[in-house]
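Two entries, shown back to back:
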Amino acid sequence: MDQRQCEKPTIALDAASIAPMYLQLYEQLRGMILRGELPAQTKLPPTREMARRCQIGRVTVTAAYEQLQAEGYVESVVGAGTFVTTLPLLSPTPPARAPSLSPWGRRLRQIVPDAASSTTPRPAIDFGFGRAFASLFPYDVWRRLLARYLSTDDAILSRYGSAAGFFPLRQAVADYLAQARGVHCTAEQVVIVSGAQQALDVLARLYLQPGNRVLVETPGFADAFDVFRLHGCEVMGVGVDDAGILAEQLPSYPPARLIFVTPAHQFPRGGTLSLPRRLLLLRWAQQHHALIIEDDYDSELRYQGRPPAALQGLDVTGQVIYLGTFSKVLFPALRLGYVVLPPLLTTPFIQAMSLLGRGAPTLTQAAVADFISEGHFERHVRHLREAYRQRRQALVAALQEHMGNAVRFSPDEAGLHIMLQLPPDADEATIISQAAALGVGVYPGARFHLTTPSGKPPPSILLGFSGLSQPEIEEGVRRLAQVIVSQNGHGS
């Protein structure tokens, strides 16, 4: 064996580090081997000598050498010592160009911004939407339901769940939707997903091809726009007003494969789709053999009267796919939703789920199933409606007091946010920036619009109220009014 005696390697161990000494020594020696600083057949110092050099115990050195040997970096020869093995060395120079992306990957880079973490401090009064007021959730009940399965049900923990979801939860969802939303389905048509985005991605893979046309509301759910674009589809916007999507205009659009709508509470503008438009929408889908995706993202949160029955309940030809979520009424971190599929799409959807992701953990699903079946869900929704109704009333009252006719918004008493439509000459970005300087966080409406003929959507901002107290809402609107009213010269 061509043995090379190791010169004294430069080892610097940090006694204050949380990493064990043996691991620090192993990692430094491994790095030297991979960089070629310790060539093949180099003999490492004996464990006693290395321990003396590094001022550590011999047992620590032995543990580091054993780990190097277990991974193939060194080999021990009885009676001779420990030697670096012959390994192909990696080039220290990065490749001239990154691996080329697929068409899907290139579209992803164009659609999704870099996920760099923002260093902007959170504003003192943040009108962010989709946030929950933590104290409203019955965590004591939730902990008890989780503990029930953690302590008594080994079957839940010891095997993977169904790709379609935990069946008792699917049954509970089907029963709830029939009673509360007028949805016609069996438990077998319900599939549990990790939110609407996962459902949209699977549906796009199953039903859409690059070049297919998809119609969406504008303004509308921008994340849905991006999913369809990611799959190479042409996304076209259909306008909305206070009665939802302008379904009477659909015959003037070129044929489309699919249409995505939010009938119960249009996102983000607000408004409920009228019955004549619902029937026009269904007739259009029948004539064009198109699918309708009905996103019923917050129908539980309606503060006056009963929510309108789901569009799916009017469908007699199996062309409506219904999406729902628990995140708005339980807590956002739950990441749990469901999709109700026409019978012909159920099997392929579940097959796709079995390969692409099996949804939420079964433990979480089991707890939610009990939360519904034992009546906690219904009680919690009643509590939320009252709490959020008061917050929305506080927001509306403050807007009327401080801004008057300077802005307008949908009168629809539902949801967790208001889309504030600004005066036509207002500068959306400037208002957001000036509000931030006053410690108020509001969010641009532009991203929810598809490109208009003028290239510039009407100015608007979104005000979420679910994460704020009533005094914070009132103070935030007062500060925001200083910006909007003064910029546009409108009095209240």
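entry 2 starts here
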Amino acid sequence: MRLGFGLPMSGDLAGAAAMTAVAERCETLGYDSLWTVDRVLYPVAPRSPYPASADGKLPERSKRVLDPLDALSFVAARTARIGLGTSVLVLPLYNPVVLARRLTTLDVLSGGRLRLGIGTGWSADEYEAAGVPMHERGARADEALALLKAWWTTNPVRFAGRFTHLPESVVDLRPVQQPHPKVYAAAYTPRTLRRVARDADGWMPAGLPIDVMREMFATIRTMAAQHGREPEQLEMVVRANLWITERPAGAARPIFSGDLDQIRADIAATRALGAHELLLDANYTPQTGSLAALLEWAERLHALGRAA
């Protein structure tokens, strides 16, 4: 099971010094990948509750968030081997033609290290600010993914969709990874699970119990076979939003929360599940408020992840 780590690209640490230090340390430690998040706004009066908190409020660190692709481009220049991923990019918020060029540029400049995690988001405020009708997000995501693949695999490229029209054009900028960078989709509903099965290279769940992940991934693989794909080729990349405590958490604790023994057990269970990669994001837990602490936890978690 590969191990990834979340970059400090939000909150007080978000900046060149912390991202450089974490990226370089993670590559030295032997992590397989680095990952960014995508947060455009911190609305004062949000219309959509934040799904990852009990009260629906966004974390305070979401008031300061760097651009996910610019952050990856920055650390690409300071590393040589480690993978560079988005977890996840809110695909419908972006013009897919411009995004295709940005993603391809990142893959070229990094020497073929881009890993594209995509989702459709949940914030009505962000969709309004981007000028994109939220009720079209699923259809726009499907179309954007189709355009990205056309951009990466055909030349000249042209595309005529419901939302995007690309006149036939020569595109000599090709990704290093062939036929294209890996695409992982966050998905929790039947429609989005079908997107993974039909169009993605893998699934990127977060916050789900082990048994639920097992059942949903089996469903995805069944759907993939129905679409004529080889189910075993689909990967599962699990996102672990860590909340580390000194004392054991109760039986009702969310996955990847609690003391180190509980975190170790969750990592071991994820490995036993057959996950191909585990993204450990320690940026939201109180123990990592300083750069020194985050670097220490990057080392401790890497050792824990390899040993579990």
